[in-house]
Every structure is written in structure tokens, then in C-alpha cells.
From TrEMBL:
Protein name: Peptide ABC transporter permease
Keywords carried by this UniProt record: Membrane, Transmembrane, Transmembrane helix, Transport
Record GO biological process: transmembrane transport
UniProt cross-references to PROSITE patterns, sorted A to Z: ABC_TM1
Species name: Actinorhabdospora filicis
InterPro entries: MetI-like, MetI-like_sf
Family recorded in the similarity comment: Belongs to the binding-protein-dependent transport system permease family.
Length: 329
């Protein structure tokens, strides 16, 4: 119980600090919503009219900063995130995020989980058969690919599989224009075809880290006394690899996976931008470009909560999986 209270207190304190930074950082950025709106309207509205328009949407730049901060904290906690004052002027922020969130979860979320599982599996086998063919080829190759920039791999994928092949795979958006979203074979097929290149980009650039980390963890774990004891007891190689070595080598990877799950909500901004994919990463880019405070604040808050919840879940899972973490002293 004391452990849960301590972790819960840390969660709340970190959340408050992140929300406070979330309030002040956008206001320290160059530009302002008033200037951004003036640029979008090509100076056709007077400053008074622009000010009145923003005020009607709930944004009051002339209000005392302390009052704005208190109102902001209350709105973040209660879910009253306001309306967009950027490109989607007047549209509720919850509506905008609700439309983009499923695409990010479907693309980045599934790909991140797949990269983690495949990377951990390959790293386990490579560490178990250290010096073998698999260990000599796959880890170095994927470590090199993971060091390449997201946007470079994305552009290369577009060049090879879209431009040079005459459009064999689509290079932008999430489904064919003209289709109506529905649970039909045509629409689902279009969504999957548009997800091939961005998901492959994320997979190629992220799997190498999981392979290398799991391989090194396996090599370290195989030198432990309990693994030698398992071999001395005559257990099969499969039992030792999975039940003794991989189970313990997997625990350090769990923390990194929790962090990556939290950042799934943020989306891969560069990948979504290159492929014009309408997820949360692309939405964040547009909100910064348009100096859209309400949308930026809601997105940053979601990213923070996602990371904190993932880390908290990882801590609880580690305590459950590792008896040493539950021991006192």
C-alpha cells in the first residue's frame, strides 16, 4: 500500500509540473493567436474584430495570467478543453482529437507493439545463440537502420515503392479520396494500403533498438548463477531460454516499452507529416504552426498523461513479474 501511495503521489506531482509547463511554454513561443488569425484572414478584419472573435471562442488574452492559469488547470482536469482558435476555428478540441486519435493508435500503436515483440524475440534468439549466423547478421543490420532518420527512410520508401513503381503503394493520406468511412472491404483495404509505407518506416527505424537491448540483456542474464543451476538440473534449452533467461532479461525492456507506449499518443510526427497522415503527430504540427493554444495544451496534456500512465503500469507490472521488486530491504 505504501508503494502504491508513493507512486500515486509521484504521478500527481509530475502531472502538475507538466501541466504548468504546458501552460507557460506556448505563451513563450514567438507569435500569438491574434497574429496568426490576422495572417490567415489577410488583415481583412480589424484588431478589435479579431479580439472579439477570439473572445467569443473562449480565449481571453487580456485576462490576468494567474486567472488564466487557474481556469486552465480546472478545464484540463474536467475535460473542458475549449475550441480551436487555429485552422479549425470554432471546432471543439475534443472533436478534433477524437478524429485523429484512432489513426495514430492504429498506425503507430500497432507498429510499436509489433516492433517491440519482433525485436525482443530476435534479440532473445540472437543472445541465446551468441556468435551464430542470426547474431552475426540481423542485430548489426537493424542497429544501422535504427540510426537512420525517420524522414529519410520515409522519403526513400516513397521513392522506391510509390514513385519508381508508378504508384504501387499510396504515399499520402489515410485512405483514397472519395471513399466514405465504413466497415466495407474496399474501405478497409484502402486504409491498410495507405498504412503500409508509414508503418514500415516506423518498424525499420525502431526495431533495432529492441533487438540490441534484448540481446545484451540475454547475454548478461545467461551468466547468472540461476541459469547455471538450471543447466545443472538438466532442464531443456527451451526451458532455460524462455523460463529462466528471457523472462529476466525482458524486465529492463519493459520500462523502455512503457515509455514508447506513452509516446504512441504523440504519434511519429515526422512520419505523419511526410505521409500527410492525419494522426495526432500531424495535428500537433499544425497546432504549433497556427499558434492554437487550446489544441496544443490538450495534446501536450494527453502526451504527458499517456507517458505517466504507461510508466506507472510498467512499475506495477515489474513488481508483479519480479519477486525481488516485492522484497523488503
Amino acid at each position: 500500500m505504501r508503494y502504491l501511495l508513493r507512486r500515486g503521489g509521484f504521478f500527481l506531482l509530475t502531472l502538475w509540473a507538466a501541466l504548468t509547463l504546458n501552460f507557460f511554454l506556448p505563451r513563450l513561443m514567438p507569435g500569438s493567436p491574434l497574429q496568426a488569425l490576422r495572417d490567415r484572414t489577410h488583415n481583412k478584419l480589424s484588431p478589435a474584430a479579431l479580439q472579439e472573435l477570439l473572445t467569443s471562442y473562449g480565449f481571453k488574452p487580456d485576462e490576468n495570467l494567474a486567472v488564466q492559469y487557474v481556469d486552465y488547470l480546472g478545464n484540463m482536469v474536467t475535460g473542458h478543453w475549449g475550441v480551436s482558435i487555429g485552422g479549425s476555428l470554432g471546432v471543439p478540441v475534443t472533436t478534433i482529437i477524437g478524429e485523429a486519435l484512432p489513426w495514430t493508435l492504429g498506425l503507430v500503436g500497432v507498429t510499436t507493439v509489433l516492433a517491440f515483440l519482433l525485436g525482443s524475440l530476435i534479440g532473445t534468439v540472437a543472445g541465446w545463440k551468441r556468435g551464430g549466423r542470426l547474431d552475426a547478421v540481423l542485430p548489426p543490420v537493424f542497429v544501422i537502420t535504427s540510426a537512420l532518420p525517420y524522414f529519410w527512410i520515409a522519403l526513400l520508401m516513397i521513392l522506391v515503392f510509390s514513385v519508381w513503381t508508378g504508384g504501387a503503394l499510396p504515399s499520402d493520406f489515410n485512405y483514397e479520396t472519395g471513399l466514405q468511412p465504413a466497415f466495407t472491404g474496399e474501405f478497409i483495404g484502402s486504409v491498410l494500403r495507405h498504412a503500409v509505407l508509414p508503418s514500415a518506416t516506423i518498424l525499420i527505424t525502431s526495431i533495432g533498438g529492441w533487438i540490441l537491448t534484448m540481446r545484451n540483456n540475454m547475454i548478461t542474464t545467461l551468466a547468472e548463477d540461476y541459469v547455471r543451476m538450471g543447466r545443472a538440473k538438466g532442464l531443456s534449452g527451451r526451458q532455460i531460454m524462455l523460463g529462466y533467461a528471457a523472462r529476466n532479461a525482458f524486465l529492463p525492456n519493459l520500462s523502455g516499452f512503457a515509455m514508447s507506449l506513452g509516446f504512441v499518443i504523440a504519434g511519429s510526427i515526422l512520419v505523419e507529416y511526410v505521409f500527410n497522415y492525419p494522426g495526432l503527430g500531424y495535428l500537433l504540427y499544425n497546432s504549433v504552426q497556427n499558434v492554437d493554444y487550446p489544441l496544443m495544451q490538450a495534446l501536450f496534456m494527453l502526451f504527458t498523461v499517456a507517458v505517466l500512465v504507461a510508466v506507472l503500469a510498467c512499475d506495477l507490472a515489474t513488481v508483479w513479474l519480479d519477486p525481488r521488486a516485492r522484497a523488503k530491504g
